[in-house]
Amino acid sequence: MWSLAYLVAFMLMLIVIGGPVALGLSFLRIRRYRATVFVAIIAIIFAVISSLLGLILLLNSGGAASKILGVVGLATGIPAIRRSIRKIRDFR
Which of 12, 45, 73, 91 has its CA 20 to 30 A from that of 64? Predict the structure, then answer.
């Protein structure tokens, strides 16, 4: 039972912290192309995980607090993905 509690806590941490971290990484201005791609890949990984887990939490839960956490994951993950892709595409 302890491992299940740790798994749930880790998933909630990824939803709540992963999206804002990815969004924050997408706002960084980096001059080198290779470093920009590296930071964008990390931001996209965090954002995808946060978005998918947030969507699962939003669709499969009954409580209002868990739905709010799911919306937070989606609301920060999707813009982070868009900004990271645009940052790589519009580099210069």
Answer: 45
| pLDDT tens digits for range 21-62 | 999 999 999 999 999 999 999 999 999 999 999 999 899 888
pTM score above 0.90: no
How many angstroms separate the CA atoms of 12 and 14, rounded? 5
Nearest to 73, CA basis, from 44, 48, 39: 48
Tokens of 84: 């990271």
Residue 8 vs residues 36, 51, 62, 70, 83: alpha-carbon distances, Å: 32, 16, 16, 14, 29
| CA distance to 37, 49, 58, 68, per residue, from 25 (Å) | 11, 15, 24, 23
